[in-house]
Specification:
Structural class: mainly beta
Strand content: over 45%
Shape: globular
Order of helices and strands: EHHEHEEEEEEEEEEEEEEE
Radius of gyration: 21 Å
Strand order of the largest sheet: 2-3-4-1-9-10-11-12-13-14-15-16-17
Oligomer: single chain
Largest sheet: 13 strands, mixed
Number of domains: 2
Helix content: under 10%
Length: 346
């Protein structure tokens, strides 16, 4: 069992979806056009066999735009699937992360939303001094996202913020190395590029008691109790989880998240119960499901997705979404969605 006092940094961001055709993206596309067709084909081929294909981060569609305030208490964030399996880049590249992190991704017809809850077991060492746009975060504890919108592992867009919500963004061309991280001959990290986005952050002081077994085993369990400051009050949080893995093809997990929150304006409790199932029929066909109960909305949500990878970086998705009130249970919304993606090599 682990007992720790941690400083939690919460960050939320909203980005204009970069494929929407903003002027900055158009300029980036012109820069990328300088690459030869052979270079683009080689990059796409490398991307289709890269080990990162084994890592899948799910983005959840939302009809309700979350508040960009750094508090992450909107119902929309509660539905998003957390991304938790992070590894180090420094000092031990590829090793498991030493601090707990949870990142969630939402999107709607206009924006991409990203939130992060980042724990630090040495709160006295936490640094967040940058306040101005495009000021370097090198000496700060920061949260950064790079969007490889061309999926060629060479060109993209870099976004970074800290607990104060200070903005830093840049355009990456050819792996970006001239004036920023990365490297490579003829590469550029263009920090004069500015996107249309916003961010906010918040730091809270918390104490945690945690038990977690090895999640690579056939059966694993976890328990976490957290208490500390929350907005203008206090919060107690209990998280319980368990999972089952049958070979490399099937895995299932269930989790219960309980919150007891006291604010200046009153107190309330929340309960979120989630169950996830995933089965890989083979290397091309996979079925996954997410089922959730949320007491704040009194809804039961279902998401079932069948994915067929008919060729590298090209997929067919059949998705079924349903939401019901738990009392009747009355149907609120139901949708069957067919999505086809295709990689074109020009």
């Amino acid at each position: 069992m682990l007992v720790s006092r941690t400083l939690v940094s919460r960050v939320s961001c909203a980005l204009v979806l970069l494929l929407a055709g903003a002027q900055g993206v158009a300029r980036a596309q012109e820069s990328r056009a300088a690459l030869t067709a052979a270079q683009r084909q080689a990059a796409a081929a490398a991307a289709s066999t890269d080990p990162d294909r084994a890592f899948v981060a799910a983005a959840t569609f939302t009809n309700t735009r979350p508040q960009i305030d750094g508090r992450l208490d909107d119902a929309a964030w509660r539905v998003a699937i957390p991304i938790t399996e992070f590894v180090q880049s420094q000092p031990n590249e590829g090793a498991p992360a030493t601090e707990r992190s949870e990142v969630r991704v939402l999107y709607d017809a206009e924006y991409l939303y990203i939130s992060a809850m980042l724990w630090d077991s040495e709160p006295d060492q936490m640094v967040a001094t940058v306040l101005r746009r495009d000021e370097s975060h090198d000496d700060n504890d920061a949260f950064a996202v790079t969007l490889d919108t061309y999926h060629d592992h060479r060109n993209g867009f870099f976004f970074e913020t800290n607990a104060h919500g200070a903005l830093f963004d840049a355009q990456i061309i050819g792996e970006g190395g001239t004036s920023g991280p990365g490297g490579g001959s003829g590469s550029t990290f263009n920090d004069d590029w500015d996107a249309s986005w916003e961010a906010a952050g918040e730091m809270t002081d918390e104490v945690q008691l945690e038990f977690r077994s090895d999640q690579s085993r056939v059966v694993w369990v976890s328990a976490l109790y957290t208490w500390g400051s929350f907005w203008d009050g206090r919060k107690k949080n209990w998280e319980f989880g368990s999972g089952f893995r049958l070979g490399a093809r099937f895995n299932a997990a269930v989790s219960v998240n309980l919150n007891d929150i006291t604010l200046s304006g009153g107190a309330f409790k929340t309960t979120l119960v989630s169950s996830r199932l995933a089965y890989d029929f083979n290397t091309k066909l996979a079925l996954s499901g997410l089922f959730q109960y949320d007491n704040l909305t009194d809804q039961f949500l279902s998401n079932v997705r069948l994915r067929y990878n008919y060729e590298p970086l090209s997929d067919i998705f059949l998705v079924y979404n349903e939401s019901r009130l738990t009392e009747n249970p009355a149907l609120i919304d139901r949708a069957l969605i067919l999505k086809i993606t295709k990689l074109f090599r020009l």
